[in-house]
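The material for today's practical consists of a large collection of protein records. There is nothing in a record beyond a sequence line and a structure line. As an example, a complete record with its sequence and its structure tokens follows:
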Amino acid sequence: AKVISCYADIIAMRHPKEGAPLVAIANGSPLMTRVTGVGCVQGAIGSAFLGALGAKARWESALASALVVAIAGEIAVEKGKTLGAFPAAFIDALDSLKPSDITKRGKVKLM
């Protein structure tokens, strides 16, 4: 699976024949692009999902990691509105994220 991060994260399989839909995630914050390490965190979380879900769940792991990181970014910017406060608020948001945050806040659109 491929994740392209910008204003919306795009999740795609390598080939459309693989059967997973192309989706866009409309969560996140512009501050996320200004902080070093957010993409690395997303890669680590994606690897954790892949390890938990298994190698055949590449698309699901990519989608889950993009959602978790984007929603944590939204929660973080509500608490740490400045560039200096955002990194700590982001880590706190990741630590306190609940499944209900994902279901309530997730903005996933089929493309």
In short: The chain is about 50% helix and 10% strand. The chain has a mean pLDDT of 88.
